[in-house]
Amino acid sequence: MSIGDFISHLERSTMPKDISEELPKVLRTSQYYLMASELAMDVALHQESVGEISNGELLKRLLQFKSDVVQLLDATDVQAEEFSIADCDNRLEGLNESYDDLKEQVLETGAASGMDIASMSALLEQNSNTRRLVTQMVKAAHYLSELFLIVDIEKEPEVSLAATPARVTE
Q1: Is 135 left (phi over 0), alpha (psi -120 to 50) or beta?
Q2: Where are the chain's structural domains?
Q3: Which of 75, 92, 94 is closest to 145 using CA atoms?
Q4: Which residue in 32, 25, 50 sits closest to 120, CA to CA?
Q5: For the chain, what is the mean pLDDT?
Q6: What band does 49 get if pLDDT is binned at 50, 70 and 90?
Q7: 76/60 Cα distance (integer angstroms)
Q8: pTM for the complete prediction?
């Protein structure tokens, strides 16, 4: 809440209009990161309730899903040289498909009595929160990359005297 109050105060101050117009993006980005941190805590809490997974195929899919999540979270680093929002979006689309397949397999395993209902429910909730967490991080990357782009565009180019051609005087 204090971030919002600070941004509201900044918007009313004597700040240049083009900068004050970007402050809502900063607030929205901070909200995405806040939600992601809350979801991360929920994911950790559900881990204790999941228990051991004995179904080999389900475990394989779950490990692949987790690996894809880690790779996507790494890809949301807007300061990384190889950052691409299009790559993040493509990876998120693939992760959503993987999530749907994983959810189906968890439900099938539970229905076949291959997993107790409490563990199945905890795993479904954990996977759902993981997917939501990653979605929040991609949304934050969208806004943050836009803000970085605005800063780079509006930044005055630095002129180095060494890069300036010398004048020849006669």
Answers
A1: alpha
A2: 2-147
A3: 75
A4: 50
A5: 84
A6: confident
A7: 25
A8: 0.78
Both tokens of residue 68? Answer: 């894809």
Encoded amino acid at 104, one letter = E
Which residue, 37, 137, 154, is CA-closest to 92?
137
| Segment 108-154, tens digit of pLDDT | 998 998 788 999 999 999 999 999 999 999 999 999 998 887 766 44
Confidence of residue 26 (pLDDT cuts 50, 70, 90): confident
- Class of residue 136 by CB neighbours under 10 A (exposed 0-12, middle 13-18, buried 19+): buried
Assigned token pair, 110: 């539970």
**Which tokens belong to 56?**
């080999």
pLDDT score of 155 more than 60: no
CB count within 10 Å of CB 144 equals 23
* CA angle (152, 156, 160) in 5-degree steps: 115
Token pair of 153 as six digits: 């565009």
